[in-house]
Amino acid sequence: MIQFLLNQELRSEHALDPNLTVLNYLREHVGKSGTKEGCASGDCGACTVVVGELQTDDAGREHIRYRSLNSCLTFVSSLHGKQLISVEDLKHQGELHSVQKAMVECHGSQCGFCTPGFVMSLFALQKNSDAPDHAKAHEALAGNLCRCTGYRPILAAAEQSCCAKQPDQFDAREAETIARLKAIAPTDIGELNSGDKRCLVPLTVADLADLYDAYPQARLLAGGTDLALEVTQFHRTLPVMIYVGNVAEMKRIETFEDRIEIGAATALSDCYEALNAEYPDFGELLHRFASLQIRNQGTLGGNIGNASPIGDSPPLLIALGAQVVLCKGETRRTLNLEDYFIDYKVTARQESEFIEKIIVPRASVEQLFRAYKVSKRLDDDISAVCAAFNLRVENGVITDARMAFGGMAAIPKRAAHCEAVLLGQPFNNAVVERACAALAEDFTPLSDFRASKEYRLLSAQNLLRKYFIELQTPHIETRVTAYV
């Protein structure tokens, strides 16, 4: 059984189909049809809901963290122990919520189909903002698409609702909601079981290891932003899933003198602060990693485990010399991330083995790390080419070179020939040009709807040139650039 709050209503579910998304649960099982399906792939934001989760701050104070999610990509099992808020829950005692009023007063709704999603993103923004911030508003709304081109009044609604924020019914009930969430906090393995399909929800790494050993055919579910597409887009059935999002040990970020250890189930939005503090370019790339709804849900371990050749984080992590800790039963092994990827969607992971955490070396002053993403649009788009460069230059000579690319091969991969040309050479234009030519020996990219092979190779070469130029003239630096 799993338990969660639907606003303030306790829901206990056991026999639901684990393949059921929160979107369809709301619309088909509880009659809340305000949440809309626009794309069923996490691109449009029409299905945005907000999930509240009990948190404890550094001072030991308990509070509820509200986050926007794409309900079309969220399986119901991930709600275990949390609070789900949909657009119907905002109106209170016959009065619209302040974000709804702002949308009305600023004329932010046109055809209205996307409006519930915008309202929920604004609600999450208001809950997480103490003052109006133009950049935060854009970030919060980047995952919501309005085909009626109503962005200006919606941004005005964001400013109005955040600037004049007033306590609402959720603030008034916070103590009560905290008590109710503590009362349903999971204490044992949860489960949804429809007879022929099941999803198990462990709470510890040890439980996860035991379950995965017992069900090696199970699909591991973290954020589900990619796995859910198999259900919503390809109409496949997932007979057995194991949801790892309630394993607290795999959601920790620990900083040591020489490294950062990030649990594999840590949401990308939670990774931002730690990675941005060490590597600003990594932080910039995370801002362009899909939408806020996806970053609130997708995990660093999932982005690696998915083994996509166009995943944004692996090239950066490979260039930084990151490692993964793999767990199977009580056995753990540490593997260089570059050795984890073998072929397209093929990894070094063994049966019943899972990524427990990612180890990222801390930055040093000698490193010259930069990252660049080439995509057709700035926000919420997949890379055509992603490049990460990490050089050490001492007395004008390159003493270490790590360069990794995504979108250039069947796996995220280092540019070995390019690195060999650079190593031990002076860091000048002539050497860089030879290194650019060597990229043609490292990669034979494919053509697809995102880019041609010629465009990809030329882009990779130009990004290396850009990297060199920016290091010579840092005042013209523009990081994580998009080329249209």
UniProtKB/TrEMBL annotation:
Keyword rRNA processing: no
UniProtKB keywords: FAD, Flavoprotein, Iron, Metal-binding, Oxidoreductase
A GO molecular-function annotation: 2 iron, 2 sulfur cluster binding
Cross-referenced Pfam families: CO_deh_flav_C, FAD_binding_5, Fer2, Fer2_2
Domain 2Fe-2S ferredoxin-type: 1-90
Organism of provenance: Pseudomonas fluorescens
Name of the protein this chain belongs to: Xanthine dehydrogenase small subunit
Ranges where the FAD-binding PCMH-type domain occurs: 192-365
Taxonomy of the source species: Bacteria, Pseudomonadati, Pseudomonadota, Gammaproteobacteria, Pseudomonadales
